[in-house]
């Protein structure tokens, strides 16, 4: 073994090992304190690219789930209004049938039926005109051509929801501008035809909305939730730190720093052996 004073190779080696282990401790502390194993691009460049893309997609999926949930609420709002209309139209049909039975209904009762019928028609039009979601009229024709709902994380992933102009359906079938009367059996018969036609059209529209809600919105929402869960797991695998593994690394590096420090101290003592040769 050669003895040199100017250059202590063993001390340099010990110092280099100590710095490397100290840097490893710093990285372990950063990962354990942040919960992430990728805190900057230098930690894992390829992993950072993939995880950021996944994060952007996850954000899109969250918004798509919100959009779909809101669309379900909107459809339920429209369907609920039409459910009430069906009930009112069923009552109007009973009144018309009662007025048509002029053998058992006198003129006073027919007049009362007519007044109630007109009140029902007025309420039907009020419901149709005032049913809104986010200030969009649902039953007044705004959705006749269809409006889109973004149901995916990327552009073009949307469906269209169409709702018939129920105001028009009522106006056309109940002849609102020249409202049929239930005061006479013949007039009540004519009104009954319009009532039954309105019942059929509104019920059909309710069925269409029910199919959209069940087959497109709710099924799509379940699929979005599964996709979100799987992508979140993938993003976590890439980016989140394994605390058990990193704690073990931290303990190992801490011991290595202590060991390197001790060996550096020993290496710094080696040149003193030269004094024995001089003494």
Features:
279 residues, mainly alpha, two-stranded antiparallel sheet, rod-shaped
At a glance:
About 70% of the residues lie in helices and about 5% in strands.
Kindly describe this structure.
The chain is mainly alpha-helical. It is 72% helix and 4% strand. It is built from seven helices and four strands. It has helices spanning 9-34, 45-100, 107-130, 166-173, 185-239, 243-269, 273-278, and strands at 132-133, 136-137, 147-150, 158-161. Strands 1-2 form a two-stranded antiparallel ribbon. A two-stranded antiparallel sheet has the order 3-4. The protein starts with 8 loop residues before the first helix and ends with a helix. 22% of the residues are buried.
Helical residue percent?
over 70%
What structural class results from the helix and strand content? Answer: mainly alpha
| End-to-end Cα distance | 19 Å
Rg calculated over all Cα atoms: 39 Å
Largest sheet strand order: 1-2
Unreliable runs: none
* Count of helix runs: 7
The description of the largest β-sheet is: 2 strands, antiparallel
**Overall number of strands:** 4
Average pLDDT reading: 88
Beta-strand proportion: under 5%
Q: SSE order in H/E notation?
A: HHHEEEEHHHH
Describe the global form. Answer: rod-shaped
